[in-house]
Amino acid sequence: MKKAIILACILVLTLLAACNDPSKEDTKSKDENTTDREIKIEDAMGTQTIKGTPKNIVVLEWSYAEDLLALGIQPTGVADLDGYNKWINVDEKLAKSVKDVGTRQEPNLEAISRLNPDLIIAVKYRHEDILDNLKDIAPVVTFAPYSEEATKNQYKNMKEEFKKVATIVDKTEEAELAISDLEGFIDDQAKRVKDAGLEGSKYIATQAYSAQNTPIIRMFTGNSIVSQIMERLSFENAYESDKLEPYGYSEVTIEALQNFQEEELQFLYIVQEDDNIFENQLKGNPVWENLSFVKNGNTHQLPGDTWTFGGILSAHVLTEQLVDAMVEE
Amino acid sequence: MRTTLQKSIVAVLTFGGGTALLFLLTFIHINQGNVSIPAATVIDAILKPTDTLAHHTVRILRLPRAMMGILAGGALAVAGVVLQTVTKNPLSSASTLGIHSGTYFAVVASTVFFPVALFGNGVVVAFLGGIGTFLIVFILSGGNRASPVRMVLAGMIVTFLFSSLTSVLQIFYENETAGLFLWGSGTLIQNDWSGVQFSYPFVIVGFVVILALSFKLDTLTLGDDVAIALGQNVNVVKFTSVVAAVLLTSVTVSVVGPIGFVGLVAPHIIKLIGYRKHVPLVIASFIWGGNVLLMADILARIIDPSFSELPVGAITALIGAPWLIWLVLRMKKTQYGEENTSVIAGKMTAGMPLRVILPILAGLIVIVLFVNLASGNYGFEPVLMYQAFFGDTNDFMKNLVLDLRLPRAIVALTSGMILAVSGLIFQGVLRNPLADPSVIGITSGAGVGALLTMFVFGVSAFWIPIGAMVGSFVFFMVVMLLAIRAKFQPTILALLGIGVSAFGSAIIQILVVQSDLGVAAALTWLSGTTYAKGWTEFTHYLLWPIVIIFPLIGLRISILDTLSLGDDTAKGLGLRVMSSRFQLAFLATILAAFSVAAVGAIGFIGLIAPHVARLIVGPSNRRLLPVTLLIGGLLLLVADLFSRTLLAPNEIPSGIIVAIIGAPYFLWLMKRRS
């Protein structure tokens, strides 16, 4: 009896396995792209060949959705659409027709598949183990924004990724334009800094939130986009981390701020309105009030929706927010 | 005369020495920090405070942290003493009984859903969660008659349930709960005196209540009958002291997070010194609990001097878990009581013949498989699926079903089968109805292996399953080596598994907090998922166990029936008990390791499938094997269906669905047996 069942199980499974194979060949002819265009792209997984000009694109990480918008393309599907709308605060909006394809960590393969895309943009640190599944659906370009190489200068990496996206969708000129536009904008904003007499100021930039009343402070390191833009605005980051922080910040407690006590040091912070640790938990606390930048009134609050991990459009917004915070107070 | 002298020396060392150590550790502690302050300034800050930043730092950041450490450590230790006395269980503590996980879940849940309820650090929420968990564990494991092992196992299962529920929240509310992760592993960070001011009245009240009950607790250790005969109202004493203990625990959890094992280690140090009466026991435990926690916090900052914090809770677990293992090994066999671990008696079973039940189960699987293949983001679409296959028009749908849904369903089905069989064997080998691969520490080992591969070696995702397999084997071998001396005695094996699991969880916590990369990714993997699994997983990890190991087990399954008669009888029947135990456990480990490699750490299936099978066909393992196998497969198949469709397009890890389906059933089962 028992052996018969085991045998039956194996039999059923083999049958199921067997009937899968022919189907795979069918999928190949899914997209008949008639244009002759064929390009090779170096991505995190090696060289990818992309035929035709992708139009129907699914992005699994927010910053590439921005990149596409900057090039005048609406993605077909974006992972964690609600999160995107909550955090990404750029002028160009996603169209109503854009579909949610599940979380960024575990995008819904079926939802992606139903959109029948001709390109999927993924990131290595989230999607490495599902790349094969994604490739079965459409050609995949994988970026590795937090790899050791890329994270050394996240701003530079952001621009390079943007250019790559532009090459894929055949919009290199638009990309050059967008980048020179951004850099021109940063230069303009640098003039505002100069006019305000803040040129060359030292600063530390943080993003802070509380965990059961304990303030946790993310202090941006030199490789972060924040720090890179600040450098172009002629500010100098006073915080140097011993190790390369993959996300561009170290998580510290309030005590660590005491290491930055130079006169005229500027303190930039991002907090959510409902979790403003500096107004709630730390107000009146001498270890906060006695810090040089608090005493001298050199603290600058950035809006809660400041997005520091974005793409080309967010960088634009971020630049303006940074300068606004530093200058107008 | 001499003994009196000795006693006084011991007393001086325990109380005076302990207090002195407390001062010394406090001093070392307040000299540590993210900014360097010379020791002289630290002393000045306390004796002659001035309005300088350094002095404020010492007085407002560092001293409260040290005080909080003493309060929390002391409170947890005293709670441990009470729990050990009331449950008559030397292994009780807030962490081993699952109280920590209950309070933690309660706080995380209200952070997400009812932030209003979190006034006063959420102590009310934490308290309700804590007392609820204690009652669940205590009542379901059989109350007063529960044996230590049974209660700790129940605590472990409740912990398992609450942790998976907590993970659901952390996965879906990544931003809302981001900060809770550090706190969730226990951290003493304070930003002023408010934490101390908030908690010390509670701690004093709890401490005084327990101290006042000390003599009654002494009587209680003589046994309930004696206590009743002496005119004591046992239930009132038990209830009051447990409420006080849970209060102490929930206050510490709400301020510093769940810090495990202090409540286990500190009382045992004092008991080892020789104190049995509760007055000195409670006082000394408080002092030494503070010492243990301060020491752990100092150690945490020596290990990781950078700005980022290593959670102190992970350090106490790292120290405490080996301690638990040592306690288990030095305990005499008799102290466990000869736990009657024979599985559910025959009268509870339906006694259904195999030829009836097997086709029914197979039919159910076919039906669920069909529903699974026909359901997706837009619900149940049987007609579309029919057309896809027989209408020959809808190629897209056909590919969808064949490339995505079918392989994933097959992976769910087969890994469910493998897990269930693994659980069946562990239950038989350990003669313990609550055993499964996660109880024996294998799942935890797999998690450690996987995370080490992911974060430390930083190799590609391809190696993660391999790391998980290596990890589970290493942990299995460790448990087995430790158990050799105890002759693989079932209860000891189970307890060792718990100790090793706790050790593994501590390492996992440290890795997750330290790497701060992809916490959600790690949590998803650890909670087990059939997401994006396909033919690769099936052919690499699932096919071989089915083809090779299942027949091997089929041949040897009758040994389990012999083992269930008890060691002596089995020996009498000519069975080499030790070696057969090892062999079977080894086969079960291989199964567990392969399934972990394929779908991550999915618990509960190995626990539940054999139980349901027993209810249907009775205790004979030969009959159980095929039924368990099918039920396990069916369970994970159903879970997979829900995980894909319930919140589409978002995924719920199927391991969590299993826990949510399985836990109520399991708790019901435990209640019935008690």
TrEMBL record, chain A:
InterPro entries membership: ABC_transptr_periplasmic_BD, Bact_iron-sidero_bind
N-terminal signal peptide = 1-17
The Fe/B12 periplasmic-binding domain covers which part of the protein? 56-329
Quote a single Gene Ontology cellular component term: outer membrane-bounded periplasmic space
Keywords, A to Z, come to: Signal, Transport
Task: Name the predominant localization.
Answer: membrane
Localization terms from the record: Cell membrane
Matching entries from Gene3D superfamilies are given as: Nitrogenase molybdenum iron protein domain
- Give membrane topology per the record: Lipid-anchor
Domain of life, per UniProt, equals Bacteria
Q: Name one GO biological process term.
A: iron coordination entity transport
Family recorded in the similarity comment: Belongs to the bacterial solute-binding protein 8 family.
Protein name, as recorded: Ferrichrome ABC transporter substrate-binding protein
The organism named in the record is: Virgibacillus necropolis
UniProtKB/TrEMBL annotation, chain B:
Gene Ontology cellular component terms for the protein in this record = plasma membrane
Q: Where are the transmembrane segments?
A: 9-30, 66-85, 97-117, 123-140, 152-173, 193-215, 227-249, 255-274, 281-303, 309-329, 356-375, 406-426, 438-457, 463-484, 491-511, 517-534, 541-559, 584-612, 624-646, 652-670
Q: Which GO terms describe its molecular function?
A: transmembrane transporter activity
State the compartments where it is located: Cell membrane
* Entries under SUPFAM superfamilies matching the protein: ABC transporter involved in vitamin B12 uptake, BtuC
Domain of life where this protein originates? Bacteria
Membrane topology classification = Multi-pass membrane protein
The record ties this protein, via CDD domains, to: TM_ABC_iron-siderophores_like (cd06550)
What is this protein's name? Fe3+-hydroxamate ABC transporter permease FhuB
Q: Pfam families per the record?
A: FecCD
Keyword presence, Cell membrane: yes
The UniProt entry's sequence similarity note says: Belongs to the binding-protein-dependent transport system permease family. FecCD subfamily.
Known Gene3D superfamilies for this protein?
Answer: ABC transporter involved in vitamin B12 uptake, BtuC
